[in-house]
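notes to self, project folder thing:

trying the whole complex as one job this time. last attempt i did each chain seperately and stitching them together was a nightmare. two parts in total, labels are on each line so i dont mix them up again. if this works i'll redo the older ones the same way
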Amino acid sequence: MDLQKVRADFPILSRTVREGKPLVYLDSGATSQHPRQVVEAERAFLEQHNAAVHRGAHQLSEEATDAYESARARIAAFVGALPEQLVFTKNATEGINLVAYAMSNATGFDGAERFVLGPGDEIVVTELEHHANLVPWQELCRRTGATLRWYSITDEGRLDLDSIELSERTKLVAFAHQSNVLGTILPVAELVRRARAVGALVLLDACQSVPHMPVDLTAAGVDFAVFSGHKMLGPTGIGVLYGRTELLEAMPPFLTGGSMIELVRMEGTTYAPPPQRFEAGTPMSSQAIGLAAAVDYLGAIGMDAVYAHEMELAAAAIEGLSAIPGVRIIGPATTEDRGGAVAFVVDGVHAHDVGQVLDDRGVAIRVGHHCAWPLHRRFGVAATARASFAVYNTVDEVAALVEGVKAAREFFKVA
Amino acid sequence: MQLEQMYQEIILDHYRTPHGAGLKDPFDAESMQINPTCGDEITLRVKLDGDTVSEVSHETLGCSISQASASVLTDLVVGRSVAESLRILAAFQEMAQGRGKVEPDEDVLGDGVAFAGVAKYPARVKCALLGWMAFKDAVVRVNDAKEATA
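result (full assembly):
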C-alpha cells in the first residue's frame, strides 16, 4: 500500500485547522473522510445518469436503476453476500430498527411466526453496545413484553462469555463485531454457535469492522448484519442491512408505501420480494453509487492490507499513550483480537479538556461516551477520549496524538 | 494561542479549587442535570433564606469548564435575591450563547466574564451552562414547593 498516494486521494487531509495547523484526523470511528473517487462517482451519476430508480421506461431510468443495482452487487460481494441479501437503509441505526420493528410487526403476518416475541422471550445484547444496538432492543422488549439480557464485559475489555447462559427463550442475540470504544473484536463464531444451540437469531453490528478488516458475512454465519456508508469512506445517508435470504423472505416490512409493493387494492396489499420489500419510497441513489465506489477503493487496496496498516497505528497509539504517566487505555492493551479504536483516560484531565488541547494542535479526536454510555458506566468513567484510525492515517499522526496528550497534562499541570 | 483564550487563569483557578463543591445539608431544592452528548453530570442544591440565595452546593462530574462554571455561579448568586440571581443567569447565558459576539458586563458577571472565550467553541457552551441550568431548575422547584404549601 502506497500511503502517500492514498492520502493524495483525500483532499481534506491537506487542509489546515485552528490557525494554520495541519489537520490530523483521528476520528474516523465517528465518520471517515471521502476519497476523490467517491465524490466523483456521485458527481458523475448526478450529472449524467440521475433518475428515479426502479421507475419509468426511459433511458435515464434504466441507467440509474443499473447503477443502483450494480452498486448493491459490488457492496454485497465486498462482504461475502448476495445482492438480494442487501437492503439499503438510511444508516445502520435504521437497519437495526428495521429488524426490531419487523419483529414487532410479525404478529398476524403470514409466515413470520418465528419473529414473534412475547412475555418470557428474551433478546440478548452485550454491555459494550453502541446505543444503536441497544435502545431499539429495549424498545422492542417494551412493546412486546420480552426481556432484555446482556453479556457483561471484563476489566480487560473482553466479553465475559460466562456472564449469562442463553436459554430456549432467547430469540435474538445482537452484538457488535468490534467495539466502537474499546476496539475489542468479539468472538463471533462462539456467539453464533451459542445462539444456534438454542435456536436464536443473530444480528451483527458490523459498523466498526467492515470499514477496517476483511468481513465475510456468509462465512460468519450470522442472520443479520448492519454497517454504515459514512464510516467506510462513503457518503452519509446510506446504511446496509444484510439478511439471510430465507429470513428476509419471511419477514414483514418495516416502512411501507411505494416501491415495496407487489399488488395494491383498496382492500389490502401484497409485498415485493426482498430487498425491495424493505426499500419503501424513492431510495437514495447517488449515496449507493458513492458507497460502491468506496468499496471499490477499499477493495483495490485490499482489506488485509488495510487491517495490517491500521493495526500498526493502533499498536503505536497503545504503546505511546501507555508510556505517559497517568494515562490509562480503556480496552485491550494488546493488538490481539482488536481493531483500531483506542479509548483512554488521563488522570486529572477530563476527556473534553484533552480533546480541546488536541484540537488546538489540529488533532481531531472524539470525546465523551461515544454513544456507549452503559459501557462507560461499567468502567466507572463519565467520558473517555478516543482516537480511531482509517486507511489514510500515518504513524506520524499517532505521534502527534501522543505529544498532544503530553501537552494536555502539562497545560493542566498534572505532569 | 487560542487555548489560553478559552482556559483563562481564572477558569483554571476555579477548576482546581471549586467553590461550593460537595453537597450540603439542609437544602430547599436539588436539581440534577446531564449533558447527553458527553455524559457529564451535575447535582446542585440551593438553600434560600426568605428571598435570598443563602447557599449553593454541587457535585460535578465533568470537565474543567463545567466545574469552574459551577464554582463561579456559587460566588455570583450566594447572597443575592432570587430575582437578581436569575438576572445574572440570563446575562451569563446570553454571553455563553453569543458566539463570542456579546460583550460581557464585569459588574454583573464578575469572574464569569472569563467564560467569554468559551462562547467561541459551540461544543463547549453546554459545559459552561450545565451548572446554571441546574440552578435555574432548583430555584423553580423551591418556588413550586412554596406555591404548593401556600
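what i see at first glance: The two ends of chain B are 55 Å apart (CA to CA).
need to look closer tmrw
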